[in-house]
Design brief:
The chain is mainly α. It contains 18 helices and no strands. Helix 3 (about 120-150) packs antiparallel against helix 4 (about 165-195) and helix 11 (about 380-395) runs antiparallel to helix 13 (about 410-430). Residues about 100-110 and about 580-583 have low confidence and may be disordered.
Amino acid sequence: MNNSIFGESGIQITVLLILIPVLVGLLIAVVKTYATYKDLRNRRKLFEFNKKLENLSPEELAFYEKRKIEEAYQLPHNELSGKIPPSDEKGIIHNINAIEELRVIPHKKSFVPQKYISPELAKLILYFLGFAVFWLLFGTTVGEYLGIKFVAPDADHVSWLSFGRLRPVHTNMVFWGWASFAMVGLSYYVIPRVSNIEIHSLKIGWYTLILMNIAVLTGTVSLMAGINNGGGEYREYIWPIMAVFAAGIVLSLYNFLTTVAKRVTREIYVSNWYIIAAMMYVIVILVVAYIPLWQDGLAETIIQGYYMHQGVGMWFMFLTLGLMYYFLPQQLNKPIYSYSLGILAFWTQIIFYTLIGSHHFIFSAIPWWMQTVAIVASVGMVIPVVAGTANFLLTFNGAWHQVKTSYTLPFYLIGIVFYFTGSMQGTVEAFRFTNLIWHFTDFTVAHSHLTMYGIITFMLWAFIYTLVPRITGKEPPKTMVGIHFWLALIGLLFYTFSLMIGSTQKGLLWMDSKPFIQSVVLMAPYWLWRAIGGTMMWISHFVFAYNFYKMVNRKQEIIIPRTPAEILEAKRQLKKTVYFPTK
C-alpha cells in the first residue's frame, strides 16, 4: 500500500503542489535576507553618521554651508554659452561619478496620503479594519487554545471552554469577524475609487459595521453557552443572529449598487463585478442554508455541502479576488495583464464553484450522479484558477524586481501561489481515491487553513499593508512586517505539512481496518507540530496588530541626512537639544 499510493495521480499532484510554495518561500527568503543585510548596513551607517555629526568642525560646517549655496544655484539660460572655458565654480558637476545605489533597482519609496479619499470615508475604512484585527486576535487565540488541547486535552474542564463549543467560536469568528470585516472595509475603498465617485452613504457603512459586530459578538456568546444551529459544520450561529449579519451585508450591497449606478466611468471595472456578485451570493447562501423547508434527511447533508463550499468560494474567495484585481495593478503601478482573463475566471467560477459542494460526500448515501457532477465541476475549477493565477503572475512581468524592495508584494505573491496550489489541491481531494484516504481526517483541516489562511488571509494582509499607509501617510516598521510574514508563512507550512502527512497515514490505517485508537496514537506527534505551527501563526497576528497600530499612530521615521541642506538642518536640530545635568 505504501508503495502503490504514490502511483496515484491525485497523490502525485498533491506532492507537486506542496513543493511549489516551499520553493517560492526559499526564493523570497534569499531576496529578503539581502534586503535585511542592507538595512543593517544602513543602520550602522546612521550610527556612524550621528557620531560624526556631533563632532563637525567649523571648517566642515563652512564647507556644507558653501555646498548648500552651490546646490541651490539655478542655471541661467546663457551660462554655457560663449567662449569661456567651463568651470565648476557653482558645483554643478560635483561628484558626478559617484553612484551610491544600483540604478536598475528602484529605491523603496515612502507612501504619502492620497487626497482623493475623504477623511470621513478613511475613518470608516479604518474602523472596519480595526475591528477585523481585533476579531483576528480573538478568534486565533481561541484557535491556539484548541491546538493546545490536542496535545493537552485535560487543560480544563469548563463547559464554556470545551472543544465542541470553542471550535465553532474559532471558525465563525475568523470567517464572519476577521475576513468579512476586512473584505467589506476594503470594498468601501475600491467601489467608489474605481467608480470615480464618492460612496453613496457613509451612514449606511456605519450601520453595516454595527450590525456585523452585534452578530459576531452575540454569536460568540451564544456558541460558548451551547446555543447553536445543530449539526451544521460552519453555520452554528442561530438564524436570528445570522439575520443581523445578513442585514448588514444587504445594506452595504444597496450602498455599493447605488454608488456603481452613479459612477462617472462608463465601464464597470472587474473588481466591482466580483465584489457585488460576492455580496449577492452570500445573501443567497445564508437564505438557502437557514430556511428549513428543504433540509430533511439527506437534503440537509446536501445543503450543508452547498453552504460550506459556497461560503468559502463565492463569498471569501470571490470578494478577495475582486480586491486583488484592484490592489495588485495599483501596487505594481501597471494595468492588469488581461481584462478578458479576469472575465473568463469570473464566469467560470460562477459556473463550476456552485456545483462542487457535494464532493465532500463522496461514497455517501446521496445520489451517485450528484457526487459525479461535483467531481467533474471540481476539475472544471482548473479553468478559473489557472486563468486567475496566470493573470496575476503575468501582471508581474517587467516588475519582478519590485518584490525585493517591497514589503507588501511578498504577501501578494504567496497569496497567489497558495491560490493556485490550495485550489488545485481541492480539485485533487475530490478524486474518489484521494477522497477515500483523506476525508474525515485532519487533511481537511490542513486544506481549509491552506485556503482560508494561505489565500484569503495573506491577500487581505497584502491589501491592508498597501492601503492603510496611503490613507494615513504612516508606514509600518519594515522589519516587523518581515517578522510577521515569515512567522505566518513558516507556521502555516508546519501546520499544514504535518497534518497532511499524518492524515495520509491515518487514512491508510482506516482503509486497512486498523483500530481507531491506533490512528489517534499515530497523530500525536503531528498534532504537536500542528500546535507549534499554529503558535507561530498566532504570534504573527500580534505582530500584525502592532504594525497596524503603527500605521494609524506612528512617530516620524528617522531619515539619514544626505544632502548639505539636510546635514545642516540636522546640526541645527542637534543644537536645540537641551541636556539637563544629573546630580
